[in-house]
Design a protein that fits this description.
Elements: H1 3-40, H2 45-61, H3 67-78, H4 85-105
């Protein structure tokens, strides 16, 4: 192998690592957001756990930057929780910071 091939392989490995890390951070953020929303909706135990898993699955299955925010807002409004999209976004940003810390420290 040449030096160029080595550098190319190293770049590919770093890219793969970074993408994996980003995926784990987003999944953790989604779980935290799902748990938060479940609490606001009065869900607990297995129902709250199932809802948090559903939020993670939604982010994986649905492309777009606002898919989770839209789902959380719609679900919260359907349960009668008075909350703005902006508040949901702020909470998600907060959970992203927490998730980044949790994932990078583990």
């Amino acid at each position: 192998m040449t030096t160029f091939d080595d550098r190319e392989k190293a770049f590919e490995n770093k890219f793969q690592h970074d993408e994996d890390l980003l995926f784990r951070i987003r999944a953790r953020r989604d779980r935290l957001a799902g748990e938060w929303a479940a609490d606001l909706m009065g869900l607990s135990g297995a129902d709250a756990e199932a809802y948090a898993r559903q939020i993670v699955d939604t982010d994986i299955a649905t492309p777009g930057p606002h898919d989770i925010r839209d789902k959380l807002s719609a679900d919260l409004h359907a349960r009668g929780v008075d909350i703005s999209d902006h508040r949901v976004e702020k909470q998600m940003a907060h959970f992203l910071d927490i998730a980044r810390q949790q994932v990078t420290q583990s």
